[in-house]
Every structure is written in structure tokens, then in C-alpha cells.
Design a protein that fits this description.
- The chain has 467 residues and is of the alpha/beta class.
- It folds into 2 domains: 297 residues, Zn peptidases (Aminopeptidase), CATH 3.40.630; 136 residues, Aminopeptidase i, Domain 2 (Roll).
- 27% of the residues lie in helices and 24% in strands.
- The chain contains 10 helices and 23 strands.
- The strands form 5 sheets. It has a 9-stranded mixed beta sheet with strand order 1-2-3-14-4-15-21-17-19, sandwiched between helices.
- Strand 12 and strand 13 form a beta hairpin.
- Helix 2 crosses helix 10.
- The radius of gyration is 24 Å and the shape is globular.
Length: 467
């Protein structure tokens, strides 16, 4: 017979927070649904390693699920599904709700770019009969982590005649891969004296791409020539075509289950494709929302969101204005009545490195999707800081829809921090808060997430779109 609870126990349950592992709160059926969902997520991770590939993947799925291209001025009604492709590097999708557009939209905003190595405009060179690509890293990385790992090459080349060719080398099992060399420890005494930040310098991130010369003793740079000959034969490009190319080197790792219990996923690009995919799947599943649901997958977050495919651009605002005009409404009024979940990741607590996070206010693996009231660093610099009223609204929404969630912050007050796209949406007079998945080894070539947190994010974004 169960003992009667003491008054202290009763008050503890009623008054104090008691975070529990998600597995303790999920049925066997929901855990099975979680694992099945994550199998599809791993497919997305392997197929969409760049923002262009993510947009292509999403656009194809949207078209198969009844979404049509939005045209300003078109007639729209509840249930209609539309999308806008912004330069093949960002995409907006929407399902029209039953409520008047003047009541605002429900916006999920995630980014689909991740830290990587971009090729310079004159990348190919030869040195001592080895051919290399020169790179410029994109986003915040620990440069030493990118040496001595398999890399694949993705992107597009615009040829001199204006035609384009897509490149993806290193993902198929029969493809070659590429890598950046590093010193053997036996000869690295001077290198080891450098600080960790300078252990590998930016101009040392040179990708080895070949070593066999073109057979002609009368010329120089024969390895470089042999590489260009291969590229010309396969893709029809010449060296000057690199000037009008976007080529990105990313880890060639595949997304895999991690742990004896297969409870985690290891992959490149969880930041922020884990939120992009869950938000996208929520958008696909939205059938008849009350308020018009909008999901935006944007570019350039890792470099500050500038540029015409980043959220410092006006393309989101223009879309909302054009959408409002379809109903004879004022776009500014629609934005002011809107709500947004900035779907971006947060740092998960790592017991190996406990000193950078404050245990009472950080996110943990397997405690659900993380609600982050503010980001920024040192004095909340660079954050929108959601209002108490909006936090309360989101708190009630998650609880009412049985979403497992937690709160978090990106590091101790004086330790550092970071930003998301939240402030750029909030600057449009939209109530905005960060909601996303906790990540271990964030910005490393191989990041980790917990499957239960991924599934909780999907449920959160789906519930928000239906609110």
C-alpha cells in the first residue's frame, strides 16, 4: 500500500520545479514515433548539407504536398498552401488559416546554413607537386577540428557562358573525398606552442585535392593542370569559372545513431538543420490552422544574417506585406499582430566541461525542446529578450499540447554567448522567442543531439502553427 504523502512532499510537487528525463515521461508508442521521426531526419541531414541542398529538398517535398508558388495578388483562402524560393538559398512556406490575416501569422524561423569551409575565388594551386584548394572558413569554427577529417565538396559553378553546373563530390561511397593535412606530433613541437586558437591558422586550411601530374615534361604546374583537366572533362569548367562559383567543403560523415542505446544522433550540421527540419515537418503537417502559419528557412545566420538571403534582408517583411495585400490588409498591422518562434539550437550541458554553463539555467539532453528567453552575451548584448507575457503564452501552449520542454541560456553571464535570428524578426515588431534543440559539440564538424529533444521540437513547432 502506497504511503500517504507528507505535507512537505505535497508542497514540493506543487511548488518546486522537477525536471525529468523525457523517456520517463513518454509512452512506448511515443518513443517509437520519436525514433521513426529521427530516421527521416537522418536522411535529410545526409541529403541537405548546404543551404542550396536544403532548399532543393524542401521545395521538392512542398510541391509533392500541394504547395504552389506564391504570386503577389493571387486569390487565397483558408487551407491554401504557398511558398517562395529566395534565390535557391532560403525558402518561405505558408498555410492560410481560418482567422482573418489581420490577427497576424504564426511564424517559425530557422536557418539552414552551417559552419563550413568556402573556396576562395582563385582556389586551385600547386605546391611541390601537390594540388590544393585555398579556403575561407564560414561561421564560427575551431579551425584545428577541420584537419585530418574526410571532406566532401558541394556547390554550384556558373560558367563563362552563363550556364551552371552543380557539384557534389565525396558523399557517394564510390566518390573520392578530400582532406586538410596536419603535422605529425613528432615534428609539431613549434606548432604545439601555439595557442589552441592558433594551432591551425586560417591560411593553413588548404584542402589537398590531387598529386598526379599531367604527362608533359615541357610545362610546369602539371598537377594543377591535371586537376583542371579532370574538372573540365566532367563539368565543362575552366579555372576562371571558379570566380563565379559557390563551392563549400563540409564533413563527409554520414548521420549515425550514437550510443549503445541509439538514443542520440551524430552528424554535421545539427545547428540549425535540426530546427529547420522539425519546423519544416510541422509545416507539412499543418492542414487547417486557425492563424496563417508561416515557416521560413533562412540563410547567412552563421555570418550575421546579412545579405539578401539572410534575415537582415527585407524579404520576409516583403512576403508578409504581399500576403496581407492578397486579403486587402495592411502588412505592418499583420506583422505587429504576429508571433514567432525563432527555431534555433542551444548549448547542452556537457559534464566534461561543466564550468561554462550555470547548472540551474542551462539546457540538458533528453529534457525536451529548449525555450530561451534571451541570448546575446555580457549584458544581453545582441538579443531581443522576449517579454514575460509572451513567455507565459508559449509556456501554456507547450503544456497544453504535452510538449516536453525546458529552459536554457547560452553560457554563464561573463563566459560568452551567441545570437540567433530572433532579434531580426523582433525588430519587425513581432513577439519572438528562441525555441530549439540542445546540442553537444556545437559548431564542431560532428555535432550531437538527443532523439527525444528532436521529437519535442517537432511537437512544439506543430502546436505553435495550429495555435
Amino acid at each position: 500500500m502506497e504511503k500517504e504523502k507528507t505535507i512537505a512532499q505535497q508542497k514540493k510537487e506543487a511548488l518546486l520545479s522537477s525536471a525529468k528525463h523525457a523517456v520517463m515521461r513518454m509512452s512506448d508508442e511515443e518513443l517509437a514515433a520519436c525514433d521513426a521521426f529521427c530516421e527521416d531526419y537522418k536522411v535529410f541531414l545526409d541529403k541537405a548539407k548546404t543551404e542550396r541542398e536544403a532548399v532543393s529538398f524542401v521545395e521538392d517535398a512542398l510541391q509533392k504536398n500541394g504547395f504552389i508558388k506564391f504570386v503577389p495578388g493571387m486569390e487565397l483562402k483558408a487551407g491554401d498552401k504557398i511558398y517562395v524560393n529566395n534565390r535557391s538559398k532560403a525558402i518561405i512556406m505558408a498555410t492560410i488559416g481560418t482567422a482573418p490575416i489581420t490577427e497576424g501569422v504564426r511564424l517559425n524561423a530557422a536557418h539552414i546554413d552551417s559552419p563550413r569551409l568556402d573556396m576562395k575565388q582563385h582556389p586551385l594551386y600547386e605546391d611541390n607537386e601537390l594540388a590544393f584548394f585555398k579556403t575561407h572558413y564560414y561561421g564560427g569554427i575551431k579551425k584545428y577540428q577541420w584537419t585530418a577529417i574526410p571532406l566532401s565538396l558541394h556547390g554550384v559553378v556558373i560558367r563563362k557562358d552563363g550556364t551552371s553546373v552543380e557539384i557534389c563530390i565525396g558523399e557517394d561511397e564510390n566518390d573520392p573525398i578530400f582532406c586538410i593535412t596536419d603535422l605529425l606530433p613528432h615534428l609539431a613541437a613549434n606548432q604545439m606552442k601555439r595557442t589552441l586558437n592558433e594551432g591551425i591558422q586560417g591560411e593553413e586550411l588548404n584542402i589537398l585535392v590531387g598529386s598526379r601530374p599531367f604527362k608533359d615534361d615541357r610545362e610546369s604546374n602539371l598537377v594543377k593542370l591535371a586537376i583542371m583537366d579532370i574538372l573540365h572533362e566532367k563539368y565543362g569548367i575552366i579555372e576562371d569559372d571558379f570566380i563565379s562559383a559557390e563551392l563549400e567543403a563540409v564533413p563527409a560523415f554520414k548521420a549515425k545513431d550514437v550510443g549503445f542505446d541509439r538514443s542520440m544522433i551524430g552528424a554535421y550540421g545539427h545547428d540549425d538543420r535540426v530546427c529547420a527540419y522539425t519546423a519544416f515537418e510541422a509545416a507539412l503537417g499543418s492542414k487547417a490552422p486557425v492563424h496563417t502559419g508561416v515557416t521560413i528557412l533562412t540563410d547567412k545566420e552563421e555570418t550575421g544574417s546579412d545579405g539578401n538571403t539572410g534575415l537582415c534582408s527585407a524579404y520576409l517583411k516583403y512576403f508578409i506585406y504581399d500576403l496581407a495585400e492578397c486579403f486587402g490588409a495592411n502588412g505592418r498591422a499583420v506583422l505587429s499582430a504576429s508571433r514567432c518562434l525563432s527555431a534555433d539550437v542551444n548549448a547542452a550541458f556537457d559534464p566534461t566541461f561543466p564550468d561554462v554553463l550555470e547548472r540551474n539555467n542551462c539546457a540538458y539532453f533528453n529534457r525536451g525542446v529548449c525555450v530561451t528567453k534571451f541570448t546575446g552575451a555580457r549584458g544581453k548584448s545582441g538579443t531581443s529578450d522576449a517579454s514575460a507575457e509572451f513567455v507565459g503564452e508559449i509556456r501554456r501552449l507547450l503544456d497544453e499540447n504535452n510538449v516536453i520542454w525546458q529552459t536554457g541560456e547560452l553560457g554563464k553571464v561573463d563566459m560568452g554567448g551567441g545570437g540567433t535570428v530572433a532579434m531580426y524578426v523582433a525588430n519587425l515588431n513581432v513577439d519572438t522567442i528562441d525555441v530549439g534543440v540542445p546540442v553537444l559539440s556545437m559548431h564542431a564538424p560532428y555535432e550531437l543531439v538527443a532523439k527525444t529533444d528532436v521529437y519535442a521540437a517537432y511537437k512544439a513547432f506543430a502546436a505553435f502553427l495550429e495555435s
